[in-house]
């Protein structure tokens, strides 16, 4: 007997196979559609939600920006405030990359004296912000979307936004992911190191001592803003362990060379602290690198250590013996009266 449907119409015996094929075809079409929707949503999340700076107003133009610089500017749409009349002011992203006791704090205060620049300090000093790649991205997204607030924030009319990032704060550990992020979101890297690594080592030891001794009325300060404070901190002369001095200098040198290698494909500029101190035209180079109108930059910080290195170390003769005949011997004769 032939099968009948609910309406009593005869259905050929071969119909189950046909029905299965039709159903399979429909399922395939639905699957392709769902997959395409999911892919588009994922792309939207990656391009838009992950980093708000890509949610820009397409009506914004930058008439005063040179054509080759256009790929490096953004028009952020912050989630926490409105840029109002400055919404079409182009913004460049940057990060100051350095090592502790390399002059980066002083350098950042100089940059922050620019009326159109916001550098938000050493954000990655918090271990939570560098616990994994997702934590890093979350912090970067907030900074470059102008949603990170600090005393340095210029907010609405900021033309360059960034922060200070030490090599040992996740930068080297996640260097591949961070380099890709920098290239994708046009982050300008400003490398600043000391050319005299012995001077940095002395500063590290002196700063470590003050963390424990707290020479300024029971408080520790890495940077000073008065001559009196600077003179008090400068009285301490560390004793250098010369048995590991070469090893320490080698380690510092390798870290710098690796960083420059890891991020060589990014948009970057390399500065040395000593050069910036002696030649303030370097600050003009940085402002031009960030596409900023050139201004005179100033810092309220007071230099702690002055004079030749021999005046800053307790066991200078031992240091001389340790470095004589090595590739670091030149550090001994550099007079750092900066």
UniProtKB/TrEMBL annotation:
Keyword Membrane part of the UniProt annotation: yes
Record's keyword terms, sorted: Membrane, Transmembrane, Transmembrane helix
Transmembrane segments: 21-39
Keyword Membrane: yes
Name of the protein in question: Sulfotransferase
InterPro entries the UniProt entry points to: Nod_factor_sulfotransferase (IPR052796), P-loop_NTPase (IPR027417)
Classification via SUPFAM superfamilies: P-loop containing nucleoside triphosphate hydrolases
